[in-house]
Design brief:
Elements lengths: L29 E4 L12 E3 L16 E6 L3 E9 L22 E7 L8 E6 L4 E5 L10 E7 L2 E9 L13 E10 L3 E4 L14 E5 L4 E6 L1 H5 L1 E9 L4 E8 L2 E6 L4 E2 L2 E7 L2 E2 L2 E2 L2 E10 L8 E9 L3 E8 L4 E8 L9 E9 L6 E6 L6 E6 L7 E10 L2 E11 L25 E5 L13 E6 L2 E5 L4 E6 L2 E2 L6 E6 L2 E3 L2 E10 L3 E10 L2 E10 L3 E10 L7 E9 L5 E5 L9 E3 L5 E3 L4 E5 L4 E5 L15 E6 L2 E10 L8 E10 L8 H4 L1 E5 L9 E3 L1 E5 L9 E9 L9 H4 L5 E8 L3 E8 L4 E8 L2 E7 L10 E7 L2 E6 L2 E7 L12 E5 L5 E9 L18 E5 L19 E2 L4 E4 L4 E4 L1 E3 L6 H8 L3 E4 L14 H16 L3 E6 L2 E3 L5 H8 L8 E3 L3 E5 L6 H16 L3 E4 ...
Parallel strand pairs: 1-12, 50-68, 68-69, 69-73, 73-78, 78-79, 79-80, 80-81
Antiparallel strand pairs: 2-3, 3-4, 4-9, 5-6, 5-10, 6-7, 8-9, 10-11, 10-12, 13-14, 14-18, 15-16, 15-21, 17-18, 19-20, 21-22, 23-24, 24-27, 25-26, 25-28, 28-29, 30-31, 31-32, 32-33, 33-34, 35-36, 35-41, 37-38, 38-39, 39-40, 40-49, 41-48, 42-43, 42-45, 44-47, 45-46, 46-49, 47-48, 51-67, 52-61, ...
Helix pairs in contact: 7-8
Length: 1278
């Protein structure tokens, strides 16, 4: 599923894990196990309590009980797991290393070295089956045991783990291990003893197990916390122990005890929640307990437990608008009350008045109580909906919500965007008629009608298209027909007819029909101004033998059906786009199919398979080559039973291109960097230098060191909110394909250096330390690797952690990067050694010694951006890297302010950007059409600043609703897509769900978007999914249909999505005649919804794929021509590149061949490359030129290798502008022969690189130029 784009600056640091929990972190549990006891002994157990749901923190109810102890040779852990309703344990896996975690199971995680990196996972299920793994490697096996048994109300599991099986000795006094115990309850989820924020495999968040010869400390019971009154019980044995506790509600301190008495190895912490009468005050309660010994730096016990007290009574009201139904839902938390004595009374009243409606329901503690009220019985205007909880008739609590006409919201029926005026670039629908061939009466119907829309003609002899002309070519090989069969033989239609119904500038309505033996056909057809055809057909049985087969056939001329696209596609693939297979194609029902060539096409669509009964459901759609025809067939009815009931179908058709775009992406020049601070944030030019990794370092051992001068202050004492505004800052990175990288950087949270190792996307090592330094100070920074990774600053050890080496990746595939994004440093004397060395702070320039693999002192001037290291291969410097005064001689400045008062917006304007997209955070509620009052002044100022630069601002819109949005509780269930297709989370904390445009949320959004444009003056919308038809079964707003077996079939909301998009286009152009709808459409080419875009942005479906040796395996050129090019669709297209699996430059090697740009990321290198392309195209006059793509360029430009492709722009007097691309994984010298006469060029024509101005080798009509792998050149010949 699409990932919603929220940052184009995809960096290494986006996936850096949370900081490892320290031994004194009060959020992470720590227990102490006492001296070894005999294996058969009953004493020595340390209890563990505090199991909670990962990431939410809510205590498990009922609560698992765990305990552990040790012998001289073993660690023993026992866990008792209560099961819901006391059901029998669920355990299907019986084999070792099977999927035991899917059963009722217990998972034990041990980190004996307390590294927060290396750990063991031991799992047992309720049947006694086991799994063991070292980190995630399940091939590792050890000699340990697990036993499971059924107990009353649940089951129990016991682990016995020899220390030797983990490769460690028995723990010494004071040793600390990482520990976590997790419980999986089948069908309910998991619970963890230590609080997790990402998942079970999070060693940085494991709890701590301390070993002692004279002390035992654990938590025996949290019953008092769960009940809200009583005691939390501790087990404490040992001398001089002191216990402290704190209780908070919603982060407000309630009680604090500095001395809790200990008696006979037990201590009790009293818990008393504040009360409102008989009941505890609702809230989020957190209890912190610590046990320590004077003089100890590490506690002997600590834990934090959280428990949410629900209100005695809560009330939600939900409105189902199209059903005319209001639903009041009450949840009761009885808090010790007898449910049989409770009653819930629901009332509805005019606001402030007496109830006019009452419902009473008995209380049920395990489910919500629901009362329903019909619209016809509700008072008008504002109403009070109340729920009262009664005990033996006496009211205990009342909750009331005041609502203003909830079933008639102010946006219901809103007509924003509905108009009889046709917006540019379309023109009104025109209809011509062909007279009947016979000389019948003057009242005879016409033999055919032809609807004319921009660039296309549709001819009808009945309700279905008989001929289609688009982009100057007739594409159908015959009429679109419903083919009938009876007993395997064809049945012919007779007396087809069509006539014109109502016609307006925006739509022409036709009616038509035909008859056949046993069946009649009637249809209503409408042709809209963008060329979308909707056909509503009804097949009705008549007297006589009836057909038993119906197939819709769409015959196309083979030369215009060379490419196939079908929707939906698949994330991570373009397999649904490309050349039509030689053997044709077949598939189960899909809602959209397009066939075409590079200039035009024809599409069919349908919202559901209602009333479909194909003989083979997996071949409901088929495309077959039949001589000079290609036939798309929709197998509607195929069976042995004659049609015995009316069958209705709604189909859509649309020829492409759908419009002649007024502008394209070369005109719009879009950048995705909008923010409320765009016009106030200073621009910093990021710099970097890259070197090959091979020969410059060893993966198993080594040392990196450098002098570093930060251009900013680092302060570990800053408030967390201030730290997180700074961003992480690059220093030294070793990068490999496949999301593997390592190095050292400055971390915003630590406020100091961090060393990390990531292998195939998984962080294997991470350690850091806070460091105070000041802008302009020089420091000596180093880190070494071998058996242990150690980091040093100014010769002093900062941190260390056990880890073997630095990388096992093949160095020939890697590169070393100094700097990158956000790197405000000056570096000097960068040295890499082949040994792990404790550094000494030098008092002069570093020199190369016998162990030096690489040394760069930056004292030698650069030539063409290539550095000259003292030892090693030259590096390649970006334009943001500069030589400045260093620690000794010259140094490398990687980033810093460009000039005083120069902002990010200034940078974009100077680079030629014309359109800025502001992503989702312009409003705190995902995909909401309004911002909040706190941001209104900011948005006005941003619009004003962008308009002052003669640029346009597009605001983000999707098709989601946030669970924190004000409208969610009342209308969420009514408007959601079911099942939710596009679930998302973001800040502020929220979960966002997909909405269905068939619901009234469409009007809410359209009304709000129009009001936002009126209020703030933005120039249009960046659309991240509104064009995407979703399958939906939400019957509340009319989606889905009942299948013969009683299940609910899904409907794709194509027509409702189309209405939203059409109205959004209209309302935008009404307010901004040059307004834009820029659509992020990756995988979605459903043209009746997509065609409203002024431009589209495609390609994200491939952005998470690891780099392969040849891009054509991921992006075949026929797939790009089909989906990504845009020309034959009428939607100017731009390509999305996240720098994987291709870099922007590499992606341009194939996108430019198709006249498609890559949207620039960031503010530096990629933007500069795209800006250079903008300037070169302007200088040549691209818009006045004829474009000749590589598949048609052989007559004027012929490369000498199949992997070299040439597309060109031609102007008679200005010559030609060539895109020459090497699509091979190997560098080569590309040779291209030009037909100078055909291009109108003289024999003495010259060739230059249009981006650099440098001459290109060109003689006797033959170009020769060196190109790297996946490289391109823009060559002007004149």
């Amino acid at each position: 599923m699409r990932t919603l784009l929220h940052s184009l600056a995809i960096t290494l640091f986006g996936a850096v894990p949370l900081l490892a929990a320290g031994l004194t972190d009060p959020e992470v549990p720590l227990v102490t196990v006492g001296p070894p006891v005999a294996d058969s002994a009953a004493e020595g157990w340390v209890p563990l309590a505090g199991f909670a749901a990962p990431m939410t923190g809510g205590l498990a109810e009922p609560h698992p009980e765990a305990r552990l102890r040790r012998s001289a040779t073993h660690l023993l852990v026992a866990v008792r797991v209560p099961l819901p309703g006391g059901r029998a344990p669920w355990a299907e896996t019986r084999s070792r290393d099977g999927s035991v975690w899917e059963d009722d199971s217990i998972e034990l995680f041990l980190d004996p070295g307390h590294t927060h990196q290396r750990y063991f996972q031991l799992v047992g299920n309720a049947a006694g089956a086991c799994l063991d793994a070292r980190e995630r490697d399940a091939a590792w096996n050890a000699d340990w045991s697990f036993a499971a048994r059924r107990v009353e109300g649940g089951w129990e599991g016991e682990f016995a783990i020899p220390f030797a099986s983990l490769g460690v000795a028995a723990p010494a006094e004071g040793a600390v291990w990482g520990l976590n115990v997790c419980v999986n309850v089948h069908g309910q989820g998991g619970f963890s003893w230590s609080p997790l924020q990402q998942g079970y495999h999070e060693p940085g968040r494991f709890g701590h197990l301390r070993f002692s010869q004279n002390t035992t400390a654990g938590v025996a019971s949290l019953a008092g916390l769960l009940a809200g009154t009583g005691e939390v019980q501790l087990r404490l044995e040992g001398p001089d122990l002191a216990v402290r506790s704190r209780l908070l509600r919603d982060e407000t301190p309630l009680t604090e005890a500095s001395a809790v008495p200990i008696t006979a190895g037990q201590a009790t912490v009293p818990v008393a929640f504040p009360r409102e009468g008989r009941f505890p005050v609702p809230g989020r309660y957190r209890l912190f307990v610590t046990a320590s010994r004077p003089g100890d730096a590490v506690p002997l016990l600590q834990f934090a437990a959280e428990h949410a007290v629900r209100p005695l009574l809560s009330l939600k009201v939900r409105a189902f608008v199209s059903e005319g139904r209001l639903q009041a839902e009450a949840a009761v938390a009885p808090a010790g009350l007898d449910p049989s004595r409770l009653l819930c009374r629901f009332t509805v009243a005019p606001a402030g008045g007496a109830p006019t409606l009452t419902r009473e329901l008995p209380c049920h503690p395990d489910r919500a109580l629901v009362a329903t009220f019909r619209k016809t019985e509700l008072p008008s205007g504002k109403i009070d909906v109340a729920a009262t909880l009664l005990e033996d008739g006496t009211p205990l609590r009342t909750m009331t919500k005041t609502l203003d006409q909830p079933l008639s919201p102010p946006w219901l029926g809103d007509r924003t965007g509905i108009s009889d005026d046709v917006p540019a670039p379309w023109t009104p629908v025109r209809v011509t008629t062909a007279a009947p061939s016979s000389r019948a009466a003057a009242t005879a119907r016409p033999s055919s009608l032809t609807a004319h829309v921009v660039g296309r003609r549709y001819t009808f002899a009945g309700p279905l298209p008989a001929a289609v002309t688009t982009a100057g070519a007739s594409v159908l090989a015959g009429p679109v027909t419903l083919q009938l069969r009876r007993d395997g033989k064809p049945v012919a239609w007779r007396q087809p007819w069509v006539k014109l119904g109502k016609r307006t500038p925006t739509v022409a309505r036709l009616v038509g029909g035909a008859v056949a033996p046993g069946l009649s056909l009637s249809g209503m057809t409408q042709v809209e101004f963008d060329g979308m055809i909707r056909v509503d057909l009804a097949l009705r049985p008549t007297a006589g033998p009836r057909p038993d087969g119906v197939v819709l056939e769409i015959p196309l001329k083979a030369q215009h059906a060379r490419y196939l696209y079908h929707f939906p596609g698949q994330w991570g693939s373009v397999a649904n786009s490309g050349a039509l297979p030689a053997a044709g194609w077949q598939h189960a029902f899909k809602p959209f199919v397009w066939l075409g060539d590079e200039e035009r096409g024809f599409s069919w669509f349908c919202e559901s398979d209602r009333n479909w009964s194909p003989a083979n459901p997996d071949a409901a759609l088929s495309v077959r080559r039949e001589g000079d025809r290609v036939v798309l067939r929709l197998h509607l009815v195929e069976g042995s039973r004659p049609i015995d009931r009316e069958l209705r179908y709604t189909f859509g058709f649309q020829a492409t291109p759908v419009k002649r775009p007024e502008k394209d992406v070369w005109d719009y020049r879009i950048h995705h960097g909008g923010s409320y601070s765009l016009h106030t944030t200073a621009y910093h030019r990021a710099g970097r230098v890259t070197y090959p990794a091979a020969g410059h370092l060893r993966g198993d051992r080594g040392t990196f060191e450098a002098w570093i001068c930060p251009l900013f202050d680092s302060d570990p004492t800053l408030p967390e909110a201030e730290k997180q505004k700074m961003g992480n800052r690059s220093i030294f990175t070793v990068s490999f394909p496949g999301d593997s990288n390592c190095g050292i950087y400055w971390n915003e949270v630590h406020q100091g250096p961090v060393v990390w190792v990531r292998e195939a996307g998984e962080v294997r090592f991470y350690a850091g330390s806070g460091t105070a330094w000041r802008q302009g100070e020089w420091h000596h920074l180093a880190f070494s690797w071998g058996d242990t990774i150690r980091a040093y600053l100014d010769g002093k050890l900062l941190f260390e952690g056990a880890f073997p080496g630095l990388t096992t990746e093949p160095l020939e595939k890697g590169q070393i990067i100094l700097g990158e994004r956000n790197a405000p440093f000056v570096l000097d004397d960068v040295r890499i050694l082949d040994e792990a060395r404790v550094p000494t702070v030098p008092d002069g320039p570093l020199a190369a010694d016998a162990h030096t693999l690489f040394l760069e002192n930056f004292d030698t001037p650069w030539a063409d951006g290539s550095t000259q290291p003292v030892r090693g291969t030259p590096g390649t410097a970006s334009s943001g890297a500069a030589l400045v005064a260093g620690r000794f001689g010259q140094g490398l400045q990687l980033g810093g302010p460009t000039r005083e008062g120069y902002t990010l917006l200034d940078r974009l304007a100077d680079m030629g950007v014309r359109t800025v997209c502001f992503h989702e955070h312009w409003t705190p509620y995902q995909s909401h059409p309004y911002t909040i009052p706190e941001h209104e002044a900011d948005l006005s100022a941003l619009v004003e600043a962008i308009h002052a630069k003669r640029m346009q601002l597009l605001l983000y819109m999707s098709r989601q609703i946030a669970d924190i949005a004000p409208e969610f509780e009342l209308y969420g269930e009514d408007v959601l897509t079911v099942p939710s297709t596009l679930t998302y989370t973001r800040y502020p904390p929220q979960t966002d769900y997909s909405v269905c445009w068939r619901s009234h949320w469409r009007e809410f959004c359209l009304k709000g978007l129009a009001e936002t444009m009126d209020r703030f003056g933005n120039d249009g919308w960046y659309l991240d999914g509104p064009e995407w038809p979703f399958p939906c079964t939400n019957r509340h707003h009319g989606c889905g249909y009942v299948k013969p077996d009683g299940s609910i079939g899904a409907t794709y909301d194509i027509f409702a999505t189309r209405e939203f998009m059409r109205r959004l286009y209209v309302l935008t152009r009404q307010r901004r005649p040059d307004g834009q709808l820029n659509i992020h459409n990756s995988t979605v080419m459903v043209i009746p919804t997509l065609g409203w875009g002024t431009s589209v942005w495609n390609g994200e479906q491939l952005g998470s794929i690891d780099r392969g040796p040849e891009f054509l395996k991921l992006m075949p050129l026929d797939a790009f021509r089909t989906e990504m090019m845009g020309h034959q669709w009428g939607t100017p297209s731009e390509f999305l590149c996240y720098e994987r699996p291709w870099t922007t430059h590499e992606a341009l090697s194939f996108t430019l061949l198709h006249d498609v740009l890559v949207r620039p990321n960031g503010y530096d290198d990629q933007l500069e490359e795209i800006a250079a392309l903008w300037r070169a195209m302007d200088a040549f006059g691209r818009k006045q030129a004829k474009w000749i793509p590589y598949w048609r360029s052989a007559g004027v430009a012929r490369p000498d290798a199949s992997d070299v492709k040439v597309s060109l722009y031609h102007r008679e007097k200005q010559g030609a502008l060539l895109v020459v691309s090497n699509l091979s994984a190997q560098a080569r010298t590309a040779a291209v022969s030009l037909n100078l006469r055909a291009l109108g060029l003289p024999s003495g024509a010259k060739a230059t690189n249009a981006l650099t101005g440098q001459p290109v080798d060109f003689s006797a009509g033959r170009l020769s130029l060196p190109l790297g792998a996946f490289d391109y050149a823009l060559v002007r010949v004149e």
